[in-house]
Amino acid sequence: MLIDSHCHLDRLKAAPDHASLQHLLSQAKSRGVDYFLCVNVRQKGFTSMQQKMAEFEQVFLSAGVHPLDVQEGLDTQELYQYIQDPKVIAIGETGLDYFYADETKALQQSCFEQQIALAVDVDKPLIVHTRDAREDTIALLKAGNADKVGGVLHCFTENWEMAKAAIDLGFYISVSGIVTFKNAGELRTVIRKVPKDRLLVETDAPYLAPVPHRGQENQPAYVRDVAEFVAELRGESLESLAQSTTDNFFNLFKDAAKLVGR
Ligand SMILES: [Zn+2]
Ligand SMILES: [Zn+2]
């Protein structure tokens, strides 16, 4: 069994309605992908995402504000209400992205701090997006005692030092289709070194389709391509990688484990 630990199912052009989403998820299932974590990026988009996913028991949710959407605002009281839905197993995605939005640094930092505090308060792990903000990301996680709840650095593209610092804080490293890209040699070296009990796989669909689907809209079924690539890279069998990444998912997201009776 594989799990797509990070996707945006409400943003897929290929799945504008219930029937097409059902079709897409069953295609994924036929490639061995049983569960999906549908990640919230804009607070205003949460309710419609929640409605679209309500009937799909295999889809878990997160609630939070992405660092590139902080200008729309963060209302932690409202977020707290969203978290009451048992399908919500994590806070995020939150974090820092200085690569695309250096000018909103201060606002990103305060939104990140508030979401770390919320995660610790409600005892749910964090889904962290980080780009070109290594030191500040780790510093804020430490300052907010994020090690109490843990989480994941999703779509990881940073160096080993950053991975190690996150792992030391009890975090997991999630690898997306970027690892299959031609120019990702340095990332492949890092992913080879991540301890087996700290690795997750994701698509980040509809973005970043892995080889051999480059140029198409990404979809959760393609997490299998990511997993096959990573297994080969690490010298493991696909079965072994599927088993460990699934165990890791349920170890990190304890509310998901409860929902499915694991
Ligand atoms: Zn992200
Ligand atoms: Zn994402």
Please explain how this structure is put together.
The chain has helices spanning 18-30, 46-53, 76-82, 105-122, 134-143, 160-168, 185-193, 223-234, 238-252, 254-259, and strands at residues 2-7, 33-38, 59-63, 88-97, 126-131, 151-153, 171-175, 199-201. By secondary structure, it is of the alpha/beta class. An eight-stranded parallel sheet has the order 1-2-3-4-5-6-7-8. The longest helix is centred in the middle third of the chain and has 18 residues, at 105-122. The two termini are 14 Å apart. The model has no long low-confidence stretch (mean pLDDT 97). The chain binds zinc ion (ZN) (2 copies). One zinc ion binds at residues 6, 8, 39, 93, 204.
Keywords:
alpha/beta; 8 strands; 41% helix; binds zinc ion; 262 residues; single chain
